[in-house]
């Protein structure tokens, strides 16, 4: 029912910022497992034809609490990583342009100020989770964080533009406990053209 996003780059393409072993494990093991379990659970729940975004935005429509939990955790793991992996590139656009750039400047003051806010959200996330740049329900840019595999869809926080993974499996093989170093280098391979496309579609 659901398939992994196809990476447009090889596992070693993001070196030295994100290492080959991490990509092999993160994409090849963790994301593959989330995708498989989410697909099976969605089929069991009779949700064929619905997108991951639709499923996660309407979890309360699934009456079985245990199945709802499986969908939330693995659907989040599937979709969050799709957004994360799609926005990484060995030759990224280092800064947004156009309307997204204008909104970032208006909301945060500058791109650097936004990066600082995203970094603070990611560093402040206790345990596993994510930091996000979103377009809120009011149409405003916001930085939010979510625990575990929750995301802006499952928590009704708007539409995600950038996903920053701070589960330990995203960085521990290379950075050990230095989450801040990983976050700094995440911005070295973040392709802002992907966020621009997501922003334009909102």
Which characteristics define this entry?
mainly alpha, minor pseudopilin epsh fold, 3-stranded antiparallel β-sheet, 3 strands, 50% helix, 10% strand
Please tell me about this protein's structure.
It is a single chain. This protein has helices at 20-44, 52-57, 65-86, 98-108, 111-124, 172-175, 179-186, 192-201; strands at 129-135, 141-147, 159-165. The protein is mostly helical and 202 residues long. It is globular. It contains eight helices and three strands, in the order H-H-H-H-H-E-E-E-H-H-H. 35% of the residues are buried. The chain starts with 19 loop residues before the first helix and ends with a helix. The protein folds into two domains: 20-86, Helix Hairpins (Orthogonal Bundle); 98-201, Iron/manganese superoxide dismutase, C-terminal domain (minor pseudopilin epsh fold, 3-Layer(bab) Sandwich), CATH 3.55.40. It has a three-stranded antiparallel beta sheet with strand order 2-1-3.
CATH topology of the largest domain: minor pseudopilin epsh fold
Q: Using DSSP, what is the number of strands?
A: 3
Major β-sheet strand ordering: 2-1-3
Main beta-sheet strand count, sense and barrel state: 3 strands, antiparallel
CATH superfamily of the largest domain: Iron/manganese superoxide dismutase, C-terminal domain
Q: Determine the fraction of residues in helical runs and give it as a percent range.
A: 40-55%
Please give the radius of gyration in angstroms.
16 Å
Gross geometry? globular
**How much of the residues is beta strand, in percent?**
5-15%
SS-based class: mainly alpha
């Amino acid at each position: 029912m659901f398939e992994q996003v196809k990476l447009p780059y090889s596992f070693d393409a993001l070196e030295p910022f994100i290492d080959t072993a991490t990509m092999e494990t993160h994409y090849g093991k963790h994301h593959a497992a989330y995708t498989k379990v989410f697909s099976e659970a969605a089929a069991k729940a009779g949700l064929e034809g619905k997108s991951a975004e639709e499923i996660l935005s309407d979890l309360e429509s699934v009456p079985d609490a245990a199945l709802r939990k499986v969908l939330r955790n693995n659907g989040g793991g599937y979709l969050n990583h799709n957004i994360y992996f799609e926005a990484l590139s060995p030759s990224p656009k280092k800064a947004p342009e156009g309307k997204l750039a204008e909104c970032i400047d208006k909301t945060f003051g500058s791109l650097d100020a936004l990066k600082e806010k995203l970094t603070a959200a990611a560093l402040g996330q206790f345990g596993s989770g994510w930091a996000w740049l979103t377009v809120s329900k009011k149409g405003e840019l916001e930085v939010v964080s979510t625990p575990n595999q929750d995301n802006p869809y499952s928590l009704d926080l708007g539409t995600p533009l950038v996903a920053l993974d701070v589960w330990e499996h995203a960085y521990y093989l290379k950075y050990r406990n230095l989450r801040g170093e990983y976050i700094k280098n995440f911005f070295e391979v973040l392709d802002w053209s992907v966020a621009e496309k997501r922003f334009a579609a909102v």
